[in-house]
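Researcher: We're teaching a course module on how sequence relates to structure. For the next exercise, students receive a sequence and then see the predicted structure as tokens, so they can try to spot secondary structure elements on their own. Here is the exercise chain.
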Amino acid sequence: MTEAFKADMITTWKKVPVQPTDEMRDAGNVHVLNRGTLFAAWSDMLRAAPDAPPESVPAELIQGLVGIAAGRIAHVFNGSCPDQVEGENVRDNECPACQILLRVDALN
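Model: And here is the predicted structure for the students to work with:
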């Protein structure tokens, strides 16, 4: 994820459980007299909640991935590039293709 996206997600989005915790119920109970009303409101709010916005991927990173897929940017295979022997998650810091994959990895 980009730093700007992470900062926006931290300040504007929060993951919440579908079923409220005891602490959440207690905090909400001070605003309503009937717990059933509270649960109904929580369920309705979850149904109405929008999905989190998708993160944008830099165009040059997408172009790099297309270059790898098309064979224009190749792995150097000096022992640390992803393959059937080393596995798909290894990276060689000196390899141009791996450098792109490392940038993709950093988004997650």
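Model: If you want an answer key for the exercise: DSSP finds five helices and no strands in the chain. Helices lie at 3-12, 22-29, 35-48, 59-70, 96-107.
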